[in-house]
Amino acid sequence: VVRIQEGDFSMEEETEKCVGSRLDVGGVATFVGVVRNISKGRDVEKIELTHYEGMAIKELAKVRQRAVDAFDITEMTIVHRVGTLYPGDRIVGIVATARHREAAFDACRFAIDELKKSVPIWKKETTPDGETWVEPTP
Amino acid sequence: MWAMKILYFASLRDRLGRSEDVVTLDTKTSIKVFLKKHLGQDFFGVASGKYLFAVNEEVVPDETELSDGDTLAVFPPFSGGV
Q1: Read out DSSP for A112-134?
Q2: In angstroms, what separates the C-alpha of A110 from chain B's closest C-alpha?
Q3: What integer is the mean pLDDT of B45-73?
Q4: Residues A55, B73: C-beta atoms closer than 8 Å
Q5: pLDDT tens for residues A73-98?
Q6: Any idea what the Cα angle at residue B63 is, between residues B59 and B65, rounded to 5°?
Q7: What residue of B is the nearest CA neighbor of A49?
Q8: Residues 37..56 of B with a Cβ closer than 8 Å to A: which?
């Protein structure tokens, strides 16, 4: 499952859905990205996430598929928010389920790293200095 | 003559003050050549590799030839995630 949405999501619900009724799942790894209140030494008031709608959901699905192909996981969910978010808000949630923990951890890490590189989503931060488009971090 | 839509995103959208253009072209041209002509001085950094390009929602190199009905998107590198 991959989704891009304005509203918040619950990691508990996403995790439950991701595991489903499978009893061969031995490990569940999750990653949650959260809006930080400081950026390059400046206080962050809010961020605005914009996306290229049609392309972003397709690229997100490709990231998930690459993770499924590359790691021995049983399922993966990626949810990414867009719109205006404030410090403490969830931005992105990833759940990876696997028979063994290594694959779940590795797939989760892979998904967030790949997502940052290939999904057309952009972040604008509002700080006391004004609005700044964020340059990607390696 | 053929028609094409160009979409701008993020900092480029702010800089240009618009989110899209619809143009007609009469000769086959690459993304790079087309954008230099179309945006002129507005297109900072076309040669510096500061922007990425997608044709019909697939990222492509800037020497890609444009075709009738294409949607070209121009954007800075992505900054989703955290």
Answers
A1: HHHHHHHS-EEEEEEETTEEEEP
A2: 12
A3: 88
A4: yes
A5: 999 999 999 999 999 999 999 999 99
A6: 85
A7: B80
A8: 54
